[in-house]
Design a protein that fits this description.
Oligomer: heterodimer
Shape of chain B: globular
Mean pLDDT of chain B: 94
Strand order of the largest sheet of chain A: 2-3-1-4
Number of strands of chain B: 10
Distance between the termini of chain A: 20 Å
Distance between the termini of chain B: 33 Å
Number of helices of chain B: 7
Strand order of the largest sheet of chain B: 6-7-8-3-9-10
Shape of chain A: elongated
Bound molecules: adenosine-5'-triphosphate, magnesium ion
Order of helices and strands of chain A: HHEHEHEHEHHHH
Largest interface: A-B, 20 and 23 residues
Largest sheet of chain A: 4 strands, antiparallel
């Protein structure tokens, strides 16, 4: 297509948007809210997944040994556990290490009162890290059958709960977003239909002159796509500005949770969100106007 | 240039609007088509523009068999034909220049050529000065001249006019007819549907008279035949 034709088409499309301002605004508002919600869900989900991932990669199971278990047996147990598919890493923690860690975590300056005694003399253990928290139960069942293990500590089921919540949130948000997209497509196709009916006469003239289907249809397709693009761009800008504010607020209000609430920087989220949202916006516009153009502009 | 063989057109409702029309119009001819209201003149024009398909028969225009024309070829085909209507069909929100340029823009003529062609064709129809006026600022005759300019700017070999003077007073009607004659003298084949007896009789052209979907008379230097 020639540049001048492209310019002409673009001008027609934009003109049509301004010619029915109210509908265009309503359409942009709907697509905007749709993409806004999508962006919000997306940001929450990505952060959620990040947190789940962090929790997942934490210690899942700790096993302690029967008293006086020979070192060779301990090594053997470690190897057996390490070979299982769901296990990503097995770390041996000696009694001294366990005691030191405990001191650091809980006793601080009072630790010295214990002198050189190690109250946790039998606390040598394996910290077992998993590939997938969902496999925790399987591992525990297996561990119970292993000789020489006296105790098995499962980490709290936070990870599991999070994983369940995660998929629930995903399904609900997917459903909502799907409905919003359907509404957006419907609105775009209506807006474009109005544009077409307003320009009936002009379209008739174009056809008689011998304008190709493409030239007749392109302005309307473009109109829908521009509406979709603008409808996607506005919420992205809004999300960009409120994201950091929201994180700052959460961090402040729920300071206790700071250790597990590892938020991603807005840049990292936008790196994927921007292309997805823009493609969605333009895609909605394309679909919505395409449907109408097919129905109303049979040459 | 235009050949019709036994063309029948029946609208979904009722009796045929055209019941077996055959005619041949050579390149460069000027032809009037006259006849009572409802005799099928506009239907004939629509068939030539491929706005409608004939129920049966064959239509060949400029070596193209219109009856076999594929859908995607219709736009290209229509560029062979300029058309003018009683109601002008101008774009009200655009000025004279843009209305005429429109015909070239929609078929992707480069901007440079449009800039050269529009003033030329506007001076052909005698509207060079009014290029920036909006349609509502023009008289009926002037508006129809804009429509003619738009119809001929792409230099189609054929010009169809369906009652081009139907909304005009006698003076303006004459001016439009003279303009069509001038275009015809430059080589364009011109078909004019009209009810204007005075002009038809004065201009001494070929006249095809239709009645109830058939050709009643077809005469060189014909006269407007009045049945009533
Ligand atoms: N779209 C249509 N659907 C059904 N019947 C139609 C349609 N268009 C025209 N007709 C009928 O076909 C016949 C011919 O109509 P046409 O418009 O060709 O007449 P015309 O000669 O142009 O008349 P006029 O001089 O009044 O313009 C008429 O009986 C008309 O009622
Ligand atoms: Mg008619």
């Amino acid at each position: 297509m020639r540049i001048s034709t492209l310019g002409f088409t673009l001008k027609q499309g934009i003109k049509s948007i301004f010619r029915n301002k109210i509908f265009s605004l309503a359409t942009i508002a709907t697509i905007g809210s749709c993409i806004f919600l999508f962006g919000l869900f997306y940001a929450v989900m990505v952060n959620f997944q990040n947190i789940v991932h962090q929790v997942e990669s934490g210690v899942a199971v700790t096993v302690f040994f029967e008293p006086d278990l020979p070192d060779e047996r301990i090594v053997q147990i470690g190897q057996e556990i390490g070979q299982r598919a769901e296990v990503s890493k097995v770390v041996y923690v000696s009694a001294e290490e366990a005691w030191n860690e405990f001191k650091d975590d809980y006793l601080g300056e009072y630790a010295d009162t214990f002198g050189d005694d190690n109250p946790l003399a039998d606390s040598a253990n394996y910290e077992i890290y998993l590939n997938d928290v969902a496999m925790q139960e399987d591992l525990v069942e297996y561990l119970m059958t292993v000789d020489g293990i006296s105790e098995i500590h499962k980490s709290a089921n936070v990870a599991n709960t999070l994983a369940t919540a995660n998929s629930l949130v995903s399904y609900v948000s997917l459903a909502i977003i799907f409905i919003l997209f359907a509404v957006s497509i419907f609105l775009i196709s209506n807006t474009v239909a109005i544009g077409i009916s307003v320009r009936r006469e002009e379209i008739g003239i174009m056809k008689l002159i011998g304008a190709s289907d493409f030239v007749v249809r392109a302005p309307f397709m473009l109109e829908g796509m521009i509406l979709g693009l603008v409808g996607a761009a506005i919420p992205l800008i809004v999300i960009y500005f409120i994201y950091n504010k929201a994180i700052g607020y959460v961090m402040q209000e729920f300071a206790v949770l700071n250790s597990i609430l590892a938020f991603l920087p807005v840049e990292q989220i936008f790196y994927t969100l921007v292309p997805i949202a823009l493609i969605l916006g333009v895609g909605i516009g394309f679909l919505g106007s395409g449907l109408t153009v097919r129905r109303h502009l049979r040459v | 240039m235009i050949l019709l063989e036994d063309v029948v057109k029946t609208y979904s409702s009722g009796s045929p609007a055209l019941s077996g029309i055959s005619l041949n119009i050579d390149a460069g001819e000027f032809v009037f088509i006259v006849g009572d209201s409802g005799s099928g003149k506009s239907t004939l024009i629509k068939l030539l523009l491929r706005e409608l398909k004939p129920t049966s028969g064959r239509i060949i225009v400029n070596n193209t068999d219109v009856t076999k024309l594929r859908h995607s070829r219709i736009p290209k085909y229509r560029r062979n034909i300029g058309c003018v209507f009683q109601d002008f069909r101008l774009l009200k929100d655009r000025n004279v220049y843009e209305n005429v340029a429109f015909a070239q823009r929609v078929i992707s003529v480069p901007g440079r050529e449009i800039k050269r062609n529009v003033p030329q064709v506007l001076s052909t129809v005698g509207l060079a000065e009014k290029y920036s006026s909006k349609p509502k600022e023009l008289s009926g005759g002037e508006q129809q001249r804009v429509a003619v300019a738009r119809a001929i700017i792409n230099k189609p070999p054929i010009l169809l006019a369906d009652e081009p003077t139907g909304n005009l007073d006698p003076k303006n009607s004459w001016e439009i007819m003279k303009l069509l004659e001038k275009i015809n003298r430059r080589g364009t084949t011109v078909l004019v549907v009209t009810h204007n007896r005075e002009i038809v009789n004065a201009m001494q052209k070929r006249v095809i008279t239709m009645k109830k979907g058939v050709i009643l008379a077809d005469e060189e230097r014909g006269e407007y035949i009045d049945e009533d």
